[in-house]
Design brief:
Its EC number is 1.6.5.11. This protein is mostly beta strands. The chain is about 10% helix and about 30% strand. It contains two helices and six strands.
Length: about 90
């Protein structure tokens, strides 16, 4: 079962959606802009090398909130973001 993520900020509880990303590995050039832009720090540069000699980004842990900051920051449109809708 997929559930929302709760974030407590100064006594206020914000419920955030969950999401997942799909990296188009052949387009990723390992610039790291998406890794820096991710507010929940679930992205990293992988050890795998693509056919262009770059190490594509990967989502290495759960916690994606589907905010699309990674996709927006990607100069090569190599990231697709999907929100997970419950119910």
């Amino acid at each position: 079962m997929v559930s929302s993520i709760e974030l407590k900020v100064e006594g206020v509880c914000l419920v955030m959606a969950k999401g997942r990303i799909n990296v188009l590995e052949e387009y990723c050039k390992s610039c790291g802009l998406c890794v820096a832009a991710c507010p929940v720090k679930v992205l990293r540069i992988s050890e795998k090398i693509n056919s262009r000699g770059h190490r594509p980004v990967e989502q290495f842990k759960d916690g994606c909130i589907g905010c699309s900051m990674c996709a927006t920051s990607c100069p090569d449109a190599a990231i697709e973001v999907y929100k997970i809708v419950e119910g």
